Amino acid sequence: MDSVIVNRKAEKRWETGHPWIFRSDVLERAQSPAGAVRVTAANGRPLGVALWSPQSEISLRMIDVDPRATIDAEWWRRRLERAVQRRTHVTSQATAYRLVHGEADACPSLICDRYGEYLVVQLLSAGVESFRAEIVDALVQLLRPTGILARNDVPVRTREGLPRSVEALHGEVPREIEVEESGVRYLAAPWDGQKTGAFLDQRENRALIGGVSRGRALDCFSYHGSFALHLARAAQTVTALDSSASALERARANAALNDFGNIEFVEADAFDFLRAADARRERYDTIVLDPPAFAKTRQSLAGALRGYKEINLRGMKLLARDGHLFTASCSFHVGRDLFFEMLQEAAADSGRALAIRALTGQPSDHPEILTIPETGYIKGALLQALD
Ligand code: SAH
């Protein structure tokens, strides 16, 4: 195994629990192509083993504190087995969930989601890509999936000098997979759906708002209707709103799959819809606001916060007395504090008395590690109008 020497800054970062070492903190680069390398401090002290990405700004991702570790098929099997075991409790709640959440499962830049008997993986760095065969073998051994799909069509691959593609790595994977989540069924779209085929990262939040759903309900930014399905179990009527006609088509199929006749589908811009509903003084007993990431970059933060405040202000005003609002942000750049401040400002402008019933984040299969902020991005709040 080739070795790499890093500076004091990189050493400190690794000691405080973060696995990334940036290009600028590498004193002596490896000559070898992407793979695993031994990492040493400037004074010669061995630090461990890392995944090596020669072209990336994130040159090294530490994977083992043991500098003598051999990163082979057996190593991957053990590492992945631990991640799989941590999910045992989820199997009673859903047949679709995340098995490997990258850095949070000590498998940097590796994502693996389970959809019933199929797996969808993302290999997000050159280092992890070089272990593709070992990872696929380990997953096959551990889980015996019918098929494994690689959703490697993500922009970060370009920054790693890797091609982007969607391909089956093992067996065959269908266009649609029927899965179950806390009592509702839906179709995941592994080949062309968002993320790896569904938004698994809101699973617990969907169950949370589903548990208090009633009366007239509204699911804005509905995508394939996953929140709407949970609302529909207890609400009288649900409006599932999205600006994408094709997303709503699948939402309709999902409603039919569950025999829900109480969901109406509205293709509209959520900002326009909420503004018009507010002007008409409409009221809803249950509302979900789960928009796409408005702040894709730090530069777009101010505009994003205005957008979040706008929809939340409208959502709060539209609540019937005792009604519940579940609101979320999946923008990494909007931290917990900013999200909470935005909600306080929206509440003040709405003139409503809103009780905080829960402050949430990601489900347990998407663990957020305190020392690795990049593992967390979802903030959620369940609010109830008391007036
Ligand atoms: N709540 C969903 C995920 C939402 S993804 C779930 O849990 O599965 C965000 C969705 O917002 C996408 O389907 C996108 O089409 C939709 N969208 C983006 N901008 C919108 C807008 N201005 N108005 C309405 N929908 C919008």
* Ligands, ions, cofactors: S-adenosyl-L-homocysteine
Whole-number radius of gyration?
Answer: 22 Å
Most strands sheet: 7 strands, mixed
User: Which strand order do you get reading across the main beta sheet?
Assistant: 16-15-14-17-18-20-19
CATH topology (fold) name of the largest domain: Rossmann fold
CATH architecture label of the largest domain: 3-Layer(aba) Sandwich
Q: How far apart are the termini?
A: 66 Å
Number of domains: 3
Number of strands: 20
Structural class call reads alpha/beta
CATH first level of the largest domain: which class? Alpha Beta
Chart the SSEs and their pairings.
Layout: E1 3-6, H1 8-15, E2 20-22, E3 26-28, E4 35-41, E5 46-52, E6 58-64, H2 73-85, E7 96-101, E8 110-115, E9 118-123, H3 126-129, H4 132-143, E10 147-152, H5 156-159, E11 165-171, E12 177-181, E13 184-188, H6 203-210, E14 216-220, H7 226-232, E15 237-242, H8 245-257, E16 263-267, H9 270-279, E17 284-289, H10 301-318, E18 319-329, H11 336-350, E19 354-360, E20 379-385
Parallel strand pairs: 1-4, 9-10, 14-15, 14-17, 15-16, 17-18
Antiparallel strand pairs: 1-3, 2-6, 4-5, 5-6, 7-8, 8-9, 10-11, 12-13, 18-20, 19-20
Helix pairs in contact: 2-4, 6-7, 9-10, 10-11
Bound molecules: S-adenosyl-L-homocysteine (SAH).
Question: Could you please describe the fold and organization of this structure?
Answer:
This protein is of the alpha/beta class. It folds into three domains: 3-64, PUA domain (Archaeosine Trna-guanine Transglycosylase, Chain: A, domain 4, Roll); 73-171, Transcription Regulator spoIIAA, CATH 3.30.750; 199-385, Rossmann fold (3-Layer(aba) Sandwich). 29% of the residues lie in helices and 31% in strands. Helix 2 (73-85) crosses helix 4. The N and C termini lie far apart (66 Å). The structure holds S-adenosyl-L-homocysteine (SAH).
